[in-house]
Task: structure prediction
Amino acid sequence: MVNLRKLFYYLNAEQKTVLLADIKRIAEGCNYIASTEWKELKESQKTHDGQCPKCRVSVKIIDKIRHVQGTGKISSDFKLGFGSINGSINIDTTEVNHCKMCGHEWKKFKIKYISTSDIVRVALNYLGEIHADPEKNKRKDWKHDAVKVFNDCHAEAINMLLKKHSGYMHDITKKTLNLKTLRKQYNSVFDENIIIEIKKYGN
Result:
C-alpha cells in the first residue's frame, strides 16, 4: 500500500507537513546566504565609491550626474517633401563619483538586491550541473557549498521547488533533475513512512 502511495505520489497530511518544513528550512538557509552576499556587496560598494582610485582621497567624494549623449536618429521631411534630416537626440544620464580634490570621476558601484528566491534558483541549477557532470564540477567548491541547503531534506521537497522555479531553470537542470534522480541522492518522504510502519508491526 505504501509503495503504491509513492508510485502515484499520494501524500498524506503528515507527509505534506514534513515537506513544508523542508521547504522552510531551505528558504532559511538561502536567506542566510542572500544576507551574507548582500553585506559583502555593500562593503565592496562602500570601498569602491568611498575612495578616489586616482589620488586615494576618501573625504571629498560627492555624487554627480553625468550627461551622456547617445546616438539616435530623427527623420523629418522638408516642407516641399525633399529629403530628410538626421541627428543624434538621445541624452542619457549616469551616476558617478566625483573627487573634489583632483576632479577625477568614476562610475558608481552598482549592485542588485539578492533575494532568497535568487539563491534557491542558483542552488537548484548548481545541483543540476553537479548531477549532469560530477567529475567536471568535483572541485567547484562554491557549487557544493550552495547545494548544502538541501542537506537532510526530502527529494519531494526539492522537486516541489524545481516546479515552482521551473521558468528559471537552465536546460541542463531540466534534463537531469526530476523526482526519480532526486530520490537516488535524497531520502523520500515515502520511504520514511515504510520504516515507521515496519517498526510499528515489529513491536
Observations:
- Strands lie at 61-69, 91-99, 105-107.
- The longest helix spans residues 13-50.
